[in-house]
């Protein structure tokens, strides 16, 4: 490739170029150069292996190799990373075979480690580990890794290290953690603290209200209109209430923009067969959208009705795709469903009547489970391998996205699955004594992703 800076004679820019760059190995020659460097260091220099250091991860097509190159393109070091086992990718990855040429040791090793961490997180990984030689534990600690336990590799002392991925905790904190302090002193209904809706005292009416984020209304008005119905009927469904009607409050800059929002709202109202009873529309103002839903049930299901020992179940509609413009954050399974399918999903909690139920909110599956557990005075464990998940979503994205229709329930062992039409239902965890949420992996390891309560609202 032509060196444009050299042709232009720009010596100052040439001098400022970094001494090395890190990139993904995209061809066989680069991978071969990385493996040759491993042989030089791990076989000949350190004597860790005899003949070669290749293993099953090198043959796994999902394994990724990152390499460091100098300005001339020579491979100075590399690292590999990918799924920990041969089964489905559950968001548990291993990094390994970090190697740097003897003449280039210094900054390249730490840079490769940082690049591997960033790549893993961008790939939706929630558990990222590496076994490192004991003498390198200090380096990894300086880079922010946590030591898990001593292990032995090739008859040499190593340490299992874990990179702390705070994606789930950060989402829960930014979306829900301020609720407790903000709502202190406001009137509620005993037994339904932090629920998706609220029973109206002295009646069989349940009310729910949700606002759509203004930036979403501006960016995707039709989808915002659809979602304003979706989130509210889901809130009613979580309490076992049948929807009766909707009220909308819309602010828009002009008639054209308002019509786009209302088109989505109208389509959703018709699809779910829930009428819009009235509302308010204001033009000439910044975008704002809020919808209130009314439903009926004589026996509302609380979000905080769980107990330690109850099994956790996720019932989710896995059809659909990422909403364009919201990849990794909002899953659209509902716009392609027929009315009978949508209504079957909405009626599922009322039919099964579990001890506790919450529809998955913007806090994601894990954050919502944390809210259910918090309201129940418990902690929770989620079995990652048992969570129903669409093929088009990584574990990290699926556990933190808004999934369209997804309901978390808790009930005594042996409880029946929700009869939710096209949705998939599976037991995937349990409520336990304590607080917070842990992920349980196929090897039995547990990683804590939420330390304690999510909202601070307390027990229902």
Short structural summary:
By secondary structure, the chain is an alpha+beta fold.
Architecture overview:
It is a single chain. By secondary structure, the protein is an alpha+beta fold. The protein folds into three domains: 147 residues, Gcn5-related N-acetyltransferase (GNAT) (Aminopeptidase), CATH 3.40.630; 180 residues, Phosphoribosyl-aminoimidazole Synthetase, Chain A, domain 2 (Alpha-Beta Complex), CATH 3.90.650.10; 106 residues, PurM-like, N-terminal domain (60s Ribosomal Protein L30, Chain: A), CATH 3.30.1330. It contains 15 helices and 21 strands. The strands form four sheets. The chain has a seven-stranded mixed beta sheet with strand order 1-2-3-4-5-7-6, sandwiched between helices. Helix 7 packs across helix 14 and helix 10 runs parallel beside helix 11. It is elongated and about 80 Å long.
């Amino acid at each position: 490739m032509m060196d444009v800076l050299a042709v232009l004679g720009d010596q100052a820019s040439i001098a400022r170029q970094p001494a090395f760059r890190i990139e993904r190995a995209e061809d066989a020659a680069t991978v071969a150069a990385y493996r040759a460097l491993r042989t030089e260091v791990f076989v000949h220099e350190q004597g860790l292996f005899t003949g070669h250091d290749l293993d099953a991860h090198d043959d796994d097509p999902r394994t990724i190799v990152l390499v460091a190159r100098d300005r001339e393109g020579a491979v100075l070091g590399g690292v590999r990373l990918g799924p920990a086992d041969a089964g489905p990718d559950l968001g548990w990855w291993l990094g390994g075979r970090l190697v740097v040429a003897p003449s280039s040791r210094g900054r390249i090793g730490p840079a490769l480690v940082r690049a591997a961490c960033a790549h893993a997180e961008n790939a939706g990984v929630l558990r990222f580990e590496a076994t490192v030689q004991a003498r390198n534990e200090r380096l990894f600690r300086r880079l922010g890794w946590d030591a898990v336990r001593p292990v032995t590799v090739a008859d040499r002392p190593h340490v299992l290290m874990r990179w702390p991925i705070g994606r789930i905790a950060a989402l829960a904190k930014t979306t829900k953690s301020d609720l407790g302090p903000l709502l202190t002193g406001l009137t509620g209904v005993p037994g339904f603290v932090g629920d998706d809706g609220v029973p109206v005292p002295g009646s069989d009416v349940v009310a729910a209200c949700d606002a759509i984020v203004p930036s979403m209304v501006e960016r995707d008005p039709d989808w915002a209109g659809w979602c304003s119905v979706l989130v509210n009927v889901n809130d009613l469904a979580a309490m076992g209430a049948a929807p009766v009607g909707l009220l909308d409050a819309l602010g828009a800059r002009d008639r054209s923009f308002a019509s786009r929002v209302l088109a989505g709202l109208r389509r959703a109202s018709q699809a779910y067969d829930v009428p819009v009873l009235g509302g308010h529309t204001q033009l000439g103002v910044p975008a704002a959208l809020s919808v209130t839903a009314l439903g009926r049930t004589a026996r509302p299901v609380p979000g905080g009705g769980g107990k330690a020992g109850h099994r956790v179940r996720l019932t989710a509609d896995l059809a659909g795709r990422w909403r364009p413009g919201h990849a990794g954050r909002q899953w659209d399974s509902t716009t392609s469903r027929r009315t009978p399918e949508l209504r079957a999903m909405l009626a599922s909690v009322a039919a099964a009547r579990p001890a506790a139920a919450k529809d998955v909110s913007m806090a994601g599956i894990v954050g919502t489970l944390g809210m259910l557990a918090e309201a129940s005075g418990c902690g929770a464990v989620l079995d990652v391998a048992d969570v129903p998940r669409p093929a088009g979503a990584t574990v990290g994205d699926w556990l933190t996205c808004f999934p369209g229709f997804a309901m978390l329930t808790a009930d005594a062992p042996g409880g029946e699955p929700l009869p939710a039409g096209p949705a998939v239902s599976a037991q995937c965890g349990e409520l336990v004594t304590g607080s917070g949420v842990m992920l349980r992996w196929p090897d039995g390891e547990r990683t804590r992703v939420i330390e304690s309560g999510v909202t601070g609202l307390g027990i229902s």
